[in-house]
Amino acid sequence: MALAKMSVAEVEQFLRDEFPQAFSGDDITIESADGQTCLLRQRYSERMLRPGGTVSGPTLMALADFAMYVVLLSAIGPIGLAVTTNLNINFLRKGQPGQDVLAEARLLKLGKRLAVGEVNLLSGTSPDPIAHVTSTYSIPNV
């Protein structure tokens, strides 16, 4: 795979300008993105919890999808119309309340029209994933 076409700062600016509904607050930070991998952190909030006190599935799915979008943007540049065509998630264990959620994304294959990747979601400092995601993105002709 090629080197990153967008730095973390460039991805953040692009997202603030083009996708503020997903990247306007300070709850998600992009800690790294290099064209092959990225690391995102979603700061803990009680809004993340479902009844029973665990991190909700929709929270985890949204973070994983966003992480795939970030790693893809870092690899292909500012192509805002790249879209998710498939996302599969396996919930492995309970996400702990009070802990940030980390998303470690990695591109497995980057083609001209499709990108395939995976995301491991982690709770706090635990090395054991709370969910594993595979995802495919469609890349428009530009």
Which structural traits does this protein have?
142 residues, alpha+beta, 22% helix, 2 helices
Q: If you had to describe this structure to a student in words, what would you say it looks like?
A:
GO terms for molecular function: 1,4-dihydroxy-2-naphthoyl-CoA thioesterase activity. The chain crosses the membrane at residues 66-89. Residues 52-124 form the Thioesterase domain. The protein is of the alpha+beta class and 142 residues long. It has a single domain (6-136), classed as Hotdog Thioesterase (Thiol Ester Dehydrase, Chain A, Roll), CATH 3.10.129. Helices cover 22% and strands 39% of the residues. The chain contains 2 helices and 8 strands. Strands 1-2-6-7-8-5 form a 6-stranded antiparallel sheet, covered by helices on one side. A two-stranded antiparallel ribbon has the order 3-4. 32% of the residues are buried.
In short:
The protein has helices at 8-18, 57-76, and strands at residues 28-33, 37-42, 49-50, 54-55, 83-91, 101-110, 114-123, 129-138. The chain is α+β, with helices and mostly antiparallel strands and 142 residues long.
CATH class: Alpha Beta
Q: Strand content of the residues, in percent?
A: 35-45%
Largest sheet: 6 strands, antiparallel
Number of structurally distinct domains:
1
Our count of helices gives 2
Distance between the termini: 19 Å
How would the blueprint of this fold be written?
Blueprint: H1 8-18, E1 28-33, E2 37-42, E3 49-50, E4 54-55, H2 57-76, E5 83-91, E6 101-110, E7 114-123, E8 129-138
Antiparallel strand pairs: 1-2, 2-6, 3-4, 5-8, 6-7, 7-8
Transmembrane segments: 66-89
Keywords: Hydrolase, Membrane, Transmembrane, Transmembrane helix
InterPro entries: HotDog_dom_sf (IPR029069), PAAI_dom (IPR003736), Thioestr_dom (IPR006683)
